[in-house]
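Team,

Forwarding the record for the chain on the shared tracking sheet. I've put the sequence and predicted structure together so nobody has to dig through attachments.
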Amino acid sequence: MSEDGTLRYKRVLLKLSGEALMGGGTSGISQEVLGALSDEIAVCHKLGVELALVVGGGNIFRGAAAEGMDRVSADHMGMLATLINALALQDALERRNITTRVLSALEIRQVAEPFLRRRALRHLEKGRVVILAAGTGNPYFTTDSAAALRAMEVKAEVLLKATKVDGIYTADPMVEPDAKLLKKVGYLEVLERGLRVMDTTAISLCMDNKLPIVVFNIRQPSNLRRILAGEDVGSVVGE
């Protein structure tokens, strides 16, 4: 918390990769990781933060990378994978007494509400965690682009990009140990240097709408709540 006890951000959009749910496995969902993530999200929700989540599906199916498949069919399968992850997150959060709604860009009314911007805003205003599934509902767009788009639509104050490293580096720190951590980066610098933060569509959309992006390590306990409290965690992409 800040010195006066207030949170830095009131409404945020958290982007989780599907791979973040795998833990040490090569696919699927780790219940241990899912539980730890849900505990952290529950703590932040109870602080009064309005939380929207976008989750990827790479732990189940990578649509754009499906060799030999029609791109549109593969991307639609990837969207369905994000819905599986969204339902898993919803179940884990509701077992922690957090009221949650899954809104899907693809209409599957038996398991999720269709995404409508006003409905998403209303759920947030009522204090529900909103999980936004199925990307944008269109092929050729990643869940990074969906996160940037949805963040704008729900009037989030910041886009939080959860990763397995401490922020934005000059190179992949897993490959190059000498890579330098960049605490503050401009949108154009990200695009010009090809820094692997989010895809170019997502970065451009955030730049056009002056939405800051915080890239941080979700595996470090309490990092999410520390960011919400205004602490200097991770890397910031901004003007």
